[in-house]
From TrEMBL:
<keyword id="KW-0418">Kinase</keyword>
<feature type="domain" description="HTH luxR-type">
    <location>
        <begin position="852"/>
        <end position="909"/>
    </location>
</feature>
<dbReference type="GO" id="GO:0003677">
    <property type="term" value="F:DNA binding"/>
</dbReference>
<keyword id="KW-0808">Transferase</keyword>
<dbReference type="GO" id="GO:0006355">
    <property type="term" value="P:regulation of DNA-templated transcription"/>
</dbReference>
<dbReference type="Pfam" id="PF00196">
    <property type="entry name" value="GerE"/>
</dbReference>
<dbReference type="InterPro" id="IPR036388">
    <property type="entry name" value="WH-like_DNA-bd_sf"/>
</dbReference>
<dbReference type="InterPro" id="IPR000792">
    <property type="entry name" value="Tscrpt_reg_LuxR_C"/>
</dbReference>
<keyword id="KW-0812">Transmembrane</keyword>
<keyword id="KW-0472">Membrane</keyword>
<keyword id="KW-1133">Transmembrane helix</keyword>
<protein>
    <submittedName>
        <fullName>Histidine kinase</fullName>
    </submittedName>
</protein>
<dbReference type="InterPro" id="IPR016032">
    <property type="entry name" value="Sig_transdc_resp-reg_C-effctor"/>
</dbReference>
<feature type="transmembrane region" description="Helical">
    <location>
        <begin position="712"/>
        <end position="736"/>
    </location>
</feature>
<dbReference type="InterPro" id="IPR015943">
    <property type="entry name" value="WD40/YVTN_repeat-like_dom_sf"/>
</dbReference>
<dbReference type="GO" id="GO:0016301">
    <property type="term" value="F:kinase activity"/>
</dbReference>
Amino acid sequence: MIKQVFKCLVLLVLLNNYTYSQELVPPIQNYSPSEYMAASQNWDIALDEKGVVYAANNQGLLVFDGLSWELFPLESQSIIRSVLPHNGRIYTGSYQEFGYWERQADGQMQYTSLGHLMEDFNLQSDEFWEITAFKDAIYFRSFGAVFKYENGSISQVTNVVSTAMDKFQDRLIFAPRKRGLVYLTGRDQVKTLEGDLKAIDDINIRDIESHGDSLFIASKESLYFYHDQKVELVKNSELNELLKSSELNHIISVSKDEIILGTIKNGIVQYNLKQDKFKVYNHTSGLQNNTVLGMAFANNRLWLALDKGVDMVNLHAPLMFYSDNSGELGAVYDLQKFEDECYLASNTGVYNFKDGNLKLIENAGDHTWNLEEIDGVLYANHNTGIYRISDGDFIPIDTRTGSFSVKKISDISGDILISHYTGLSLYDIKKEELRELEEISFPIKEVVFENDQVIWAAHPYEGIYKISHTNFEDIKVEKIEALGEKENFNPRLYNLNNQVIAYVNGQWYQYNPFQNSFKPFEELNEFKDHRLINKGDDTYVFADADKGGLMITDLKDEVINLDSKELKHRLVKTNENFIRQNDSIFFVTLNDGFARINLDQLKRSKQDNWISTPFIKEFSDASQRYEVASSPVIPFKNSKNLTLKVGMPVSTATMLHYELSGEEYLSGYIETGTLNLRNLDHGDYHLVLTALGNGSEEAATTTLDFSIAAPWYLSLSMKLVYAFLILSTGFLIYWLNQQKLKKHQLQLEAKFEQEHAERLNRIEKERLMNEIDLKRKELANTTMMAAKKNEVLMEIQGELNKDKNKFSNQFRLKHIMTKINNAVKNKDEWKLFETNFNEVHEDFFKDLLARYPKLTSKDLKLCSYLKMNLSSKEIAPLMGISVRGVEVHRYRLRKKMELDSDVNLTKFLIKNF
């Protein structure tokens, strides 16, 4: 009785130890049912060669491509119990149903049932719980039989009713119910495994796992191993005691020295065979559930199918986390290992951390900024003052005001300088005397010593101060003008290689003592917006202010990035802290705990990074899917919204970048697994998907070429129509131009002919005018000659009349006088004048008679002379009358023509006739 009570107490202690204390745990990623949108229970889990995760869920096949989850239910809505990806197919087993899924060329998942191949077998409520591939065949089992699928047919493996199966030493091993272990021969015969199997007689085996030259065997309460043809119980008594209470369910090998045990009641057990030690990770450690129904291991990651959700554990990550799920600890600001104890400074106080348990130091509650070990003494900068920690006691040094930091002044004096909420204080450790430096009456967050006489101080809100002193006497305080264009809020000060360096508003500055001013620090330009949080001899750690990650570098070639995702987005922003324990082990403070980093292991892991290759699952528009293996052509009317569903299996890749080039250029990052391309122009496109790791050189890519067809109005047939129309239009324009040219040519010819005719007419007119002028001149000359002649004749006649009495022969004189009169009044001359006159002044007489019909020939004669603008003196000889006679005749003519006295007769005739 006492022995049984003792065993119960031991079990309670073990359960309490492994369930409620929280050790450092590897990164655990939880995928809850609300995230993958399916049932809670997952019975099995497996990964394909790409890294895509497949889980057998209560509602169907659950697929995780690293970015998004998809659920594919069976038509019967049956629970899927087992899953195995193999050669591009995903085999699943459920209630009286076995088959496989294949992703089609257009991305759709299609299920092919093989149930019709088992119609000849007497299936009695069989559910297929396990599937494995062996020598080009697929074996799957229920609790009633084992079946083999090969070459398109299914056969039953006779005489085997198995509870587990696995491959071991190139043989397929089965665990018949309470009958030890058997293996399958080359002729599908069953033989008992060689050796001593007494240890598992009458044991109901739940799982078997090959591990090198050993085979591990799991029963409900114990772990056995088969080696050198003998089965033995694992000798670790603590492990066996733990398994009795945890109910062992599955085994998986994860390295040459480790196996993982999945339990029903207590999560997983990581068992190191070489060290014979184990660790337990359960709900307290961060698992969603303690019931492990399936496990898979690939690419250094352990995937768990749980009774509630799916979890991923990075067992061999260089980071280990401590998380305070109770919220008691709060955000951790500092961590120190001191006298074999671990102390945490958080916003709720100072804690002792031991064996996974937190204990608040008495009187240490409240915000604590910093822990600093100086000369074997651990100091705490607390919201209520400065304290030292000794043997777990919190001993006050100064409690007048809260303090930010503490610095040792020099090895010679041994004094320390305390930066606190109201200034600086000098503490003499030997005398335990505290002196407040009264000249400094503003908060100081941290100080940096330039030399023995100059201190640089960082005000948390107002910038940087220079403090000069002589052994802390004659203190002078000088505020430095703001560096950069903004106010210097929360500046940081450093002493790098005996130089004072400032980090302000994301920029780095270096103090030049000769110019007494800060200048931009060119050597740290590449670390803009990166605050230095730790420096060693050859290791510098920067915190990325924008992305929330860490950068570890030697300021030369080596750069190691820890992004915010790897740290679970848990850094205490603006108060990041990186604490060195030794050359390899570091601690990072988090907002609900801390992380331990093995730097050597981190460097190796970054070198051995596996970056998964992204792939395209689906490419579709609003109406149809397209095959991504070819270069799809999308109709323009369907191209307004193109959808790509992509996958990037879980790996060290941190981002998925896309770059689309072609008629348009787009780039960015895909976070949800879906990329929408909207309103692309028609043409050819090239899409590049790049999975990016932490280093700029780390990448894995995949590509897709596709085209968007031209709209109907730009199709080939329409282009031919357009070409025909253009040619027709061109021909029509050419024809019209020809017609226009011909018409223009005819117009030019007509115009030329008209101009030629006009030119001829003008020439003819000019000729006629010249002839008229000539005739007018001839007429004038003839008239003037006639006038002269008549004038001479009339003068001769006058002379003869004067001396007519002197002539003896009067008859002869009379005859001469008659001839003279006849010569003066020669009708032939008048006719000649009239003819010439009519040639020059056509229709003159006709028009004149038409208007004045009563005019006599003598009147017409006078009018013609007047038309020629002859004077009365010139007219008189022509008419054979005197000038007086001409005047009288003109007067009479005026009367006949009824002209006013003021009208000039000559001008009237010239103007009107």
